[in-house]
Amino acid sequence: MAVTRTFSIIKPDATRRNLTGAVTKMLEDAGLRVVASKRIQMTKEQAEGFYAVHKERPFFGELVDFMISGPVVLQVLEGEDAVKRNRDVMGATNPADADEGTIRKSYAESIEANSVHGSDSDENAKTEIEFFFAEDEIVG
Ligand code: CMP
């Protein structure tokens, strides 16, 4: 299995509850390595650009408002089959559907305040990593 990268966001509901370490430990325990990390206050323009694929969805405005409601921690994660590995440990988008032992089952408050984002494909991972990180900020 190839070692690949994915992009992760620890969302404002999780940073607000001081869960950065707890979430990161679950990622690391799942076999992922944090090869880049930064805590930022996302701007409205960044949130709208990052989630542009969802701009026609009815929840877009609330999603953007939520993502700028507090600090987020952006991470590049590396591991074997990183996109799938990360999605497995995150659990379903809606915490009501998430399996036991997943990050969202453990910590998410709602489908919006669902604690983490993770890329859904290798192609999107590359785009999302490049949206927030320069290559020299990633140290594997
Ligand atoms: P994320 O993986 O960050 O990608 C888009 C986000 O939209 C998703 O996680 C959810 O947190 C958020 N969202 C808010 N409302 C909904 C909804 N009704 N259906 C799907 N996603 C939603």
Short description:
Its EC number is 2.7.4.6. The protein is an alpha+beta fold. The chain is built from 7 helices and 4 strands, in the order βααβααβααβα.
What does this structure look like?
With 140 residues, the chain is an alpha+beta fold. It has one domain (3-137): Nucleoside diphosphate kinase-like domain (Alpha-Beta Plaits). The protein is 39% helix and 20% strand. The protein is built from 7 helices and 4 strands, in the order E-H-H-E-H-H-E-H-H-E-H. It has helices at residues 12-16, 20-29, 44-50, 60-67, 82-90, 103-107, 122-132; strands spanning 3-10, 33-40, 72-80, 116-118. It has a 4-stranded antiparallel β-sheet, with helices on both faces. The longest helix is centred in the C-terminal third of the chain and has 11 residues, at 122-132. The protein is globular and about 40 Å long. The two termini are 17 Å apart. 34% of the residues are buried. The mean pLDDT is 98. Bound molecules: adenosine-3',5'-cyclic-monophosphate. The site of adenosine-3',5'-cyclic-monophosphate has 8 residues, from loops.
